Amino acid sequence: MQATRIIALRHGETAWNVDMRIQGKLDIELNETGRWQARRAARALASEEIDAVYSSDLLRAWDTACTVAGAAGQTAKPVPALRERGFGIFEGKTFTEIEATWPEQTLRWRQRDPLWKPEGGESLQELRQRIEMAVFSLAERHPGEQMVLVAHGGVLDVLYRLATRQDLQTPRSWNLGNATINRLLWTPEGLSLVGWADTRHLEDDEALDETSA
Description:
alpha/beta
């Protein structure tokens, strides 16, 4: 079976990225910088052969995807399973507010406990299972083709770990910047890494890098 080439993008910047405020599954739109980043990513990919564009249906990812898809002559398709990790009671709060209000839960979060989840939210293990199932299912549809996935920081983190065979508790040392271009290959054996965090199209931008958005 031929490999499926995957271009994975995190959405463009939002005001909540700037404020270091947890977005999770809340529907936050792009700010002006984020819209600029989406246009730059679209221009960088416009000359590539792209067979499909799939996106989280949250507005920040969806608007980024529609910009990229339009430049590639495609129509973005919404995939709710590509949404960001659910952070429950943490959503809408800044990192500082979370640490002050829930210090014990914050420690488990920082330690990347794969089974822990904030009240009303999702564990890292649940997130990984959801993303692996969704992305593998989409990739199976496009053997020998190239598809674009537009999602969120937590989603991109899972893809990197799957491609590099790293577990959920490994400290992150890779970039998850807004609108950076990341490339992977999928076969029935799993994902492999081709290239990560290409920022050449954003060389004039100061994109924010977060663990999750």
